[in-house]
Amino acid sequence: MTLQVVTGNHAAGYALSTAGEANRTARGAACGIYPITPQTEIVEYVAKFPFSKGRVVPVESEHSAMGVTMGAALGGARSFTASSANGLAYMTENIMVAGYYRLPIVMVAVNRTLGPPWNIWVDQGDTLMLRDFAWLQFYCEDNQEVLDTTLLAFRLAEDHRILLPVMVCMDAFIVSHTQMETDLPDQAQVDRFLPDLDLKHRLRYDEARTIGGLSWPQEGLSMRLEIDEAMGRVPEVFQECRSAFTEAFGRDPGDQLQTFETEDAETVIVATGTMATTAREVVRHRREAGERIGLVKLKMFRPFPQESLRQACRPASRIAVLDRNYAAGSGGVFWQDTRAAFQGHRDDLLIQNYLAGLCGGDVTPAVIEQILDDLADRTEAGSPAWIGIDEHSEVPV
Q: For residue 323, which of 393, 257, 273 has the smallest C-alpha distance?
C-alpha cells in the first residue's frame, strides 16, 4: 500500500479504477460518465486510467451515463459510475431499472443539495430520495472509508447471493474535496481481493434472452420477493466481505453500524457521514465530564440495520437522530427509519429528530452540544427540530 494525501474524490476514483482493472482477465470494465459538481473529479480520474481491458464512455447526460453502465453490466463487465444531486435526479429512471435488473453496479454519489434554488453544498436528500429502490446504500465518514467501502461494494454486489447495485455516499466538499492521508492499495492487492465477475444472467451472443420484458403480476411479485430475500442476506454477506477485506488489506473497513461508548449510554446520538466525526468528539468530552452519552454511526442505510441499532441502544432512554436531509412534511429520513426500528420493541424511549446541516450548513461541536442540552430538557419527543433557522437560537424548540 501507499500512504498518500488525497481528496475523497481521488480515493473514490482510485477505488473504482483499480476494481475495474481487477476484472481484466474476465470481461473487463466499463463506466458511463457525465460531470457534475462536486463529483466531476471522480469521473475525470476514471477517464484517465489506463485500463488493460475496459472502456470509459463520455455521454450527454446522467441518464445516459447509467444507461451505458447498465448495458456494459448486462454484457458481463464490471461496471460503475458516479454522480450527485440533480444528476442523480435525472438518472433516477435508470437507477431504478439497474436494481430490478439485478446488476452489480457500484456508483459513488457525492451528497449535494438538490435545487432549485441552486446549491452545491452537502445535503443527503439526493441519495435518500432513492431509498426505496433495489440498491444498497452506504454513507462514509472520511476518505479512507470511501476507498475501502467502494472496493468492498464490488465484492458484495457481485456475490451471487446478493446481485444488487451499491451506492457509496460521501459529503460534498467536506469529504470530496478535502485531502487527508489515505492508504491506496496496489493493483495486486485489489486483484487478490476481487475475483473475476461472473454474472450468470448476462447477455450472450449465442443464446437469445429478453431483458425487461412484460411480466404477469405473479411473476413480478416473485421478482420483488427475490430482491427482498437478497436484501435479507446482505448483513451476513457484508461481514464475510469485511473479513476478506481485513485479511487482504490489513485493516478493518468498518462495520455496517459502528458504536462509540454506547455500552452504558443513557443518551445516544445517531448520525451519519462527517457529522459522526464531530459528534464523536463531543461524546468523548462529555464522557470525560462524567455523562453517559454514546454515538451510533450508521454506515449502512439500505438495508436498514434495525436489529443492530436496537442492540446498540439497549441501555438508552433518549436518542437524538441527526438528519442532514429532509422529507417534505415528514422530517428526517434516518429519524423515520430509527423510529420504525423501535416500534413495538420499546415504549420507554424518547427519540427526537434534529435537522442539522441541511443545504450545507455547518454542524460544529457547539451545535452538537446544544442538541444534547435540548434533548436533556425534553420530557417527550416533539416535531423535528430545525437547526440554524433562527440566528438567535441554533436549536429552535
A: 273
